Amino acid sequence: VQLQASGGGLVQPGGSLRLSCKASGFALDYYSVAWFRQAPGKKRDWIVCGRKNDEKDYRNPVRGRFAVSRDNAKSTAYLQMSALKPEDTAIYYCRAAYLRTNYWGQGTQVTVSS
Predict the structure, then answer these.
(1) In which band, very low, low, confident or very high, does the pLDDT at 50 lie, cut at 50, 70 and 90?
(2) In this structure, are residues 26 and 103 in contact, taking their beta carbons and an 8 Å threshold?
């Protein structure tokens, strides 16, 4: 059982990135997928949650700029990030949750800098 996050990198302010979160060993269909981030010196905070019924919740700092989606056939969830700002710099994590079961991805670094 594994959750693999990928797609991070260095991007200029105003740019875009798409993060992926691929599940292996379990069916992502049954799970809600949330994205968290942790900036240097700060605690890990959730920024968006995509429920299995397709409802989505976004925190204010990313609302209107970030979008979640999923492809259950590929057992993969995505976080499309646009209009990136330097304050979006962080390690991004995905978490799949179902009842009391949680799986975390290992984190992928996103750096927004000119």
Answers:
(1) confident
(2) yes
Residue 92 corresponds to which tokens in the numbers above? Answer: 């991004």
Identify the residue whose tokens are 């609302």: 63
What b-and-e string marks burial along 46-61, b requiring 16 or more CB atoms within 10 Å of the CB? ebbbbebeeeeebeee
Task: Pull the structure tokens for residue 15.
Answer: 């740019």
Residue pLDDT, tens place only, 53-100: 778 889 999 999 999 999 989 999 999 999 999 999 999 999 999 999
